[in-house]
Automatic annotation (TrEMBL):
GO molecular function: alcohol dehydrogenase (NAD+) activity
Signal peptide (residue range): none
Upper classification of the organism: unclassified sequences, metagenomes, ecological metagenomes
Domain Fe-containing alcohol dehydrogenase-like C-terminal: 4-139
Organism from which the protein derives: marine metagenome
InterPro entries documented for this protein: ADH_Fe_C, Alcohol_dehydrogenase_Fe
Protein name from the UniProt record: Fe-containing alcohol dehydrogenase-like C-terminal domain-containing protein
Amino acid sequence: ATQGGMAFSNASVCLVHGMSRPIGAHFHVPHGLSNAMLLPAVTAFSAPEAMTRYADCARAMGTAGELDTNDVAVEKLIDELSSLNHDLKVPSPKAYGIGDNKYFSLLETMAEQALASGSPANNPRVPNVEEIVAIYEAIWA
């Protein structure tokens, strides 16, 4: 935990953290869990603007090989993150028990709150409100 804190103190946090805060605030989901819910979808959203960096992560994790193209490596990374969530039984917001009416009625508010946090500005691909809403929709089920 200390090393993680030191790392993000230097590099800051990005879109996943900005989007997870409103989930926690509105639905009392623990911050780490909401981060996990979001990570595969946010990685898929972000990767087109930083393919080499995400591919390097996949290779460092052993998910992709040196001969894999960056596109293939990133696809493997996203698949691995999804598999990890499955193995760890990370629920979707719906499976966590969040009501669909409340969740969907708050999407734009949560997106605006995520942007206001400042974290999305550190992301390789900086989203707008509509793109954040689409990510929240994508992780629902």
